[in-house]
Design goal:
The protein has eight helices and 15 strands. With 218 residues, it is of the alpha/beta class.
Length: 218
Amino acid sequence: MKLSNYNGNPYIGVYCVANEFFSLIPFDSSKSLEQDIEEALGVQVERCSIAGTNILGSLVAMNSYGAVVTNMASQEEIKAISKRIPVYRIEDKLNATGNNILVNDNAALVHPEIGKKVLKKIEKVLQVEVVQGVLAGHKTVGSVCIATNKGVLCHPNTRKEELEMIRSLFKVPASIGTLNYGAPIVRACLVANSRGAAVGYKSTPIELGRVEDALGLI
């Protein structure tokens, strides 16, 4: 695990996203962030933009099999990612896919108002079971939790029955926590896969311990 930042900002999960094999980071990321992600997650790093912006973590959801990106992404941006994995540009008004889709290699939980036809396309590109739901009172399930192939770290207000649902759906342990000194929107605060995590530098030792426990990084 590495403490890191995006140009001084501890909310690195807003800007970066990763799967088991590679991570996407903004063009203007520091070399130190690139190195932190490479070393902590054991992945290659690709620099890119999505919809001409740097908020890749909010606009991309991906696992080892595919990626779902905002419908504002350009063909050139999609082409860069599709060299790695299949890409689906979502056909829905709820297009901040990183915020709206929680996914690992076993399952995906998505915003409850995403259209049914779109769900089938998400299922096809990510190659997992797709379920709609709400966590901790939030429809933006991808922003309040992070899922890897070893565990799920959830918003601190996630209820017991919701944690049980997550464990059953994603087939990994799930627990609650905060990051960046009490921030409940945990996905915004880190980038992670089954091998490691790069975490916002304001996170406390207790919070880091919960990440290690939740994501099986000990």
